[in-house]
Amino acid sequence: MARILGYIATSLDGMIADRNDNLDWLFAYDGMDLGEYDYNKFIKRIQTLVMGRGTYDFVARQPSEWPYHGKRVIVVTSRPIDNPVADIDVRSDVDALIAELRAFDDGDVWMLGGGKLQMAFIERGALDEIEIYVMPEILGGGKPLFPQTGFRSSPTLISTQMLDRGCVRLHYRFSPTC
C-alpha cells in the first residue's frame, strides 16, 4: 500500500506564495543544503504525484522542461485540461482517488503543491505524513499553507531539524482514519 506524503515549504508567517501568487521568495533558497532531506533524494522514492489544477497550471507555465517525466502524475480538477504539457491523468472525485492511490504498490505518493488539496486529504484521514520546511521569511500576506476549513487535527511530531540558511524541517505523522 502506498504512503501518501506531503513535502512543502512555507514562510515563517505560514504562506506558500506571496500576495501576487509568486514563489520568488522561495526560489532565493535554491541550492540550499538540505542534506538527507534534499528534494532530489525525496523524489527518488516517489512514483506518483498528485496536484491540484492551480499547481498543474503553475508548473505547466514554467519555461523549463516538465520535471516529472517517468512519474505517474494525477491532476485533481473538474475542468478539462486542453493540450496537457505531459502525460497526465485527471481525476475529479477525491474519495475515489484516495482508494486508487492506496492500491498502488510501486512507490510513495507525493501531494505536490498548495494546501487546499492537502487539506482535503487531511480531512479524509488520507495524508500519512508531511514534511514542512519553514523558511526564515515573513511575507506579510499571500496564500496560506492550509486554508481555514474549520477542521481540527493533532498530528504527531516525528522530528525537527535545523538546516542550512535558517530553514527548519518539521516532520509530522497523521493518525489514519480511513
Automatic annotation (TrEMBL):
Pfam families: RibD_C (PF01872). Residues 8-161 form the Bacterial bifunctional deaminase-reductase C-terminal domain. It comes from the Bacteria. PANTHER family: 2,5-DIAMINO-6-RIBOSYLAMINO-4(3H)-PYRIMIDINONE 5'-PHOSPHATE REDUCTASE, DIHYDROFOLATE REDUCTASE FAMILY PROTEIN (AFU_ORTHOLOGUE AFUA_8G06820). This is Dihydrofolate reductase.
